[in-house]
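As promised in the previous annual report, we have extended the structural survey to additional targets. Below is the entry for 3-oxoacyl-[acyl-carrier protein] reductase.
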Amino acid sequence: MSSVALVTGGNRGIGLAVAHSLAAAGHDVVVTYRSGSAPAGFKSVIMDVTSTESVDKAFDEIEAQWGIPEIIVANAGITKDGLVMRMSDEDFESVIDANLTGAFRVARRATKGLLKLKKGRLIFVGSVVGALGSAGQVNYSSSKSGLVGMARSFAREIGSRGITANVVAPGFVETDMTSTLDEKRRNEIAGSIPLGRFCSAQEIADVVTFIASPQASYISGALIPVDGGLGMGH
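The corresponding structure token record, generated without further manual editing, is:
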């Protein structure tokens, strides 16, 4: 019997690639999305990770229709980049609320089901900038750094129930977000990466799928970089 896998923010970019990869590995994938349209070929529900009510409602719906999600990929997130002197409280707080508190809301609700199953995977999608920092992204890098402490605390708190918690930290990925960079900036960034290129969303998805697999059953509390060497293990 296949496991139910939940991917938040799964209607585009990394989330959609993860959904396809988990489905190809035989999992029963449900994606959540807040806006836009549901991706073709997947079970889907609307979930706004900034609302506890929305998260709880989505989980109730998923559990009633398809069963308890055993694999949770907390991927939903936003950016509101800007220089720190001009960054408003709202710009900072909204990114923390979506990326960090949102991941907590999802993981907290998911844990109810995982404790019943006595097994499961919590997989948080972080970022290389969570460790390296990034000019113009004080809010985003703070939110992604916080995921490491969160995952490791979940790992310690519920690990004895057969539940792992890990962070997969992408570097610069070919997505809609990075496609808007001009050629000069793209070349500058690629030049700072030891492998000399951006990552594909599929390369991130492959690592997430590995962490969700039985082969990764003894990996917990880890920060797994998929960044072409940019962070060098930080």
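Residues 89-117 form the longest helix (29 residues). The beta strands are 4-7, 28-33, 43-46, 69-74, 120-125, 163-170, 223-226. These points will be discussed at the next consortium meeting with the crystallography subgroup.
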